[in-house]
Write a structure and sequence with these properties.
This is PGF-CTERM archaeal protein-sorting signal domain-containing protein. Keywords: Membrane, Signal, Transmembrane, Transmembrane helix. By secondary structure, this protein is mainly beta. The strands form 11 sheets. The protein has a 6-stranded mixed beta sheet, with no helix packed on it. It has a 6-stranded mixed beta sheet with strand order 21-22-28-27-24-25, with no helix packed on it. A hairpin with a 6-residue loop joins strand 40 and strand 41.
Length: 634
């Protein structure tokens, strides 16, 4: 028979063991893996042209790609040109006494002239800039006359007569004595032609006309008519549309915003710049504001405008023939008749292929370097990105850059030595997404494509859905303030997502089994996630084509401690699977831990049950056992 001391020792050990289990049950939770790398949203260009754009459901532009432009953006780089066509911008140099205040008359030899007061900054050199487009309207726009540098100008008397073709004396006087005089010659309006060139994708990043010229000297611009009857640009290249029209430079300079804003604001009463094509064709303004895929540059010295189009990311329909049309109405001050310049072009398929595609999948060599190679019709010298993003942990990604060789081939390597196997991955090769896998992963897959936001819902399209044991795809929003995921919509293999209108720009799609076979999603405990190598199968997707926010750098681990769908927790999830409203029983702020072997930081949410305030049935049972043991000791 055991002694009383031995019995008490055994009881203490039992109490200690149960207490540890109680604490573990209270505070243990799932984790959201963190990483320094973030997967970039990919765009499925193969879908462009398959569906006409619905302007009635388009979003209001929110942001542009790239750096924020400075508050004051110079529009033109005027040369000292005193002979310009009507509508252009002229620069008239005047030598005046250093630091003097002078009076300048534009049209001094005419009965009705414009009087200006100019103060020199001390160098004795004044350059008067005249916007002949505004002057032709005989208005009082402040942008009609300005000066370069630190000089200042004020209009003291406006001419009532509109500026017309002819010679105008520009005279500077000081206390009634002439100190400088030049002649400004305004000729009849000039609207030339339009040319189309194809350029490497990286040419789209050109910030100035000088950058475009440098790219041309490097062989990165080519004629768009090399082998086609009309100019043709390959999808993914930069379309360079050159517009020789000096007489619209003044209209561009008169507008507000960046150079791109100013050029695209030419949809005025007298000047219209559009692209026409099937189903509305390429939408210039929507492409610029919603996708950042249109950039405009102005070469005022040559009276030339450039439109750069990133053909992989344009809004609208690229199929068939597109026509860039510049039309000047007969009533315009820069035309005495209807003037139109137009040029048609086509966007050809990139014919992009990747080597080693087997059963629609590209193999990844986990534990080694992976070579990605292929062929494309994109012009030689083009550079584009290649990325590999994990579908078990989307914070894990690998990236590289490939260059197209003279024979149309490309090749690069990705460092996949530390990736898990078996594994599922998204391989994106220059805006085109491929299924990728390491080892022999199960056939769990889906492709998600941004749809459109309607009055009450947001549609996200699903293709190629494969859930081997049935179940659902569940869309989760990530709440950064609470470090928690919340389900906002479900879909089966036959559905698309219909999400709340107010859904975030990105949602995380997770594959779930139907754990209780009731045909509905009952939460991630009852219907656990499909898992691979211990991680839920998941992927971020944009909810609309216009994306202005980055992909959250988090991954989903699920509120249940489960492996391969076998749940070991009896806690329940009480939030509605489609509700966005945050309830007291939703996951709360995460607990962060560090993996001692890898240094990776993970966060796990604390999940409360439905049977008590923060306590599930297991916790309650353990508490009763501890109480009983303590009572026995007494």
């Amino acid at each position: 028979m055991p002694s009383t001391r031995s019995s008490l020792t055994a009881e203490r050990l039992l109490v200690l063991g149960v207490s540890v289990l109680l604490v573990t049950t209270l505070f243990a939770g799932p984790a959201y893996a963190q990483s320094d790398e973030r997967s970039a949203p990919s765009v499925d260009t193969s879908r462009y042209g398959t569906r006409c754009v619905q302007p009635s459901v388009m979003e209001t532009p929110t942001a542009r790609r790239g750096a924020t432009p400075p508050a004051s953006v110079p529009v033109v780089n005027e040369t000292d040109d005193r002979r310009v066509p009507l509508g252009d911008v002229a620069a008239v140099p005047l030598s005046v006494p250093a630091g003097a205040n002078v009076s300048v008359s534009v049209g001094a030899d005419r009965t009705d002239s414009t009087a200006l007061a100019i103060r020199d900054d001390g160098d004795g050199q004044v350059v008067l800039v005249v916007n002949t487009y505004l002057a032709a309207h005989a208005g009082t726009d402040a942008g009609t006359y300005r000066v370069r540098g630190n000089d200042t100008v004020t209009v003291t008397n406006w001419s009532r007569a509109p500026l017309q073709p002819g010679d105008y004396a520009v005279r500077a006087t000081q206390t009634g004595t002439a100190v400088a005089e030049r002649s400004l010659r305004v000729t009849t309006p000039e609207i030339g032609g339009i040319t189309v060139q194809r350029a490497a994708p990286q040419v789209f990043e050109s910030a100035t006309v000088a950058d475009v010229r440098a790219a041309n000297r490097s062989g990165l611009l080519r004629s768009g008519t090399e082998s086609h009857s009309i100019p043709t640009v390959t999808e993914g290249e930069t379309a360079v549309l050159r517009i020789d029209a000096p007489s619209i430079v003044g209209a561009v300079a008169a507008a507000n915003g960046t150079t791109t804003d100013r050029v695209l604001s030419l949809r005025a009463d007298d000047i219209e710049l559009e692209i026409f094509g099937p189903c509305g064709g390429i939408l210039l303004r929507e492409s610029a504001t919603e996708r950042g895929s249109v950039r405009a540059l102005v070469d005022a010295g040559n009276g030339t405008l450039y439109l750069l189009l990133d053909t992989a990311r344009l809004e609208g329909v690229l199929a068939a023939e597109q026509t860039l049309d510049l039309e000047i109405e007969e009533t315009s001050v820069i035309a005495n008749r209807d003037v139109e310049a137009e040029q048609s072009f086509e966007v050809a398929d990139a014919s992009l292929s990747v080597d080693g595609v087997r059963a629609e999948t590209v193999d990844v060599q986990a534990g080694n370097w992976t070579t990605i190679s292929g062929r494309t019709a994109i012009m030689p010298g083009s550079r584009f990105g290649i990325s590999l993003v994990s579908r078990q942990d989307p914070t894990v990604s690998r990236r590289a850059t490939a260059t197209v060789h003279a024979n149309g081939t490309f090749q690069t390597t990705l460092d996949t030595r530390s990736l898990s196997s078996p594994g599922l991955y998204d391989l994106t090769v220059f805006h085109r997404q491929y299924r990728s896998g390491a080892g022999d992963p199960p056939s769990i897959w889906w492709d998600a494509h941004p749809g459109y936001r309607g009055e009450t819902t947001t549609t996200v399209y699903l293709d190629d859905v494969s859930l081997p044991k049935g179940g659902f795809l569940v869309a989760y929003e990530y709440d950064e303030t609470r470090d928690a995921f919340h389900p906002v919509g479900t879909a089966t293999e036959m559905d698309d997502f219909e999400l709340p209108r107010t859904v975030d720009d990105h949602v995380l799609v997770v594959a779930h089994r139907d754990g209780d076979d009731d045909g509905r999603f009952d939460g991630p405990v009852t219907d656990p996630a499909y898992r691979l190598s211990g991680h839920p199968v998941q992927a971020w997707t944009a909810t609309v084509e216009s994306v202005s926010t980055p992909v959250p750098n988090v991954s989903f681990a699920g509120p249940e401690s489960a492996v391969d769908g076998r749940s070991t927790s009896t806690a329940t999830v009480t939030e509605s699977p489609t509700a966005v409203t945050r309830t007291p029983n939703t996951p709360t702020a995460a607990v962060r831990t560090t993996d001692s072997s890898t240094g990776a930081v993970t966060t796990g949410d604390r999940q409360t049950g439905a049977t008590g305030v923060g306590f599930g049935p297991v916790v309650t049972l353990l508490a009763l056992v501890v109480a009983a043991l303590l009572a026995r000791r007494r």
